[in-house]
């Protein structure tokens, strides 16, 4: 399709590995279609590490750094959210390299 799709979440707190997995499967389908995805986190106040791991870190490990950085953009209002996402990706990458 090669569109830019905006993905946003209801509520202000993102938690649970199960919800993260559901959202990751949606993202994977969009990426397989060739779409770019903008993830809108402006209304999000907190993200649990389990959600961030299941959605962002697992996705990063599946699609690789190049696809992740070229196809996914974030809109955030809090650097704390960026830190949780970055930490989750870094932790998963370190686990895989051991």
Automatic annotation (TrEMBL):
User: InterPro entries of this UniProt entry?
Assistant: DUF4325
Which organism is this entry from?
Leptospira ellinghausenii
Q: Pfam family example for this protein? A: DUF4325
Q: Where is the DUF4325 domain?
A: 24-75
Its recorded name reads DUF4325 domain-containing protein
């Amino acid at each position: 399709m090669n569109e830019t799709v905006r993905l946003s979440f209801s509520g202000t707190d993102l938690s649970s590995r199960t919800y993260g997995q559901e959202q990751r499967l949606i993202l994977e389908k969009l990426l397989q279609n060739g779409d770019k995805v903008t993830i809108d986190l402006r209304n999000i106040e907190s993200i649990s590490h389990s959600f961030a791991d299941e959605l962002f870190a697992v996705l990063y490990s599946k699609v690789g750094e190049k696809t992740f950085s070229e196809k996914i953009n974030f809109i955030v209002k809090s650097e704390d959210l960026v830190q949780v996402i970055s930490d989750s990706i870094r932790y998963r990458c370190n686990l895989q390299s051991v």
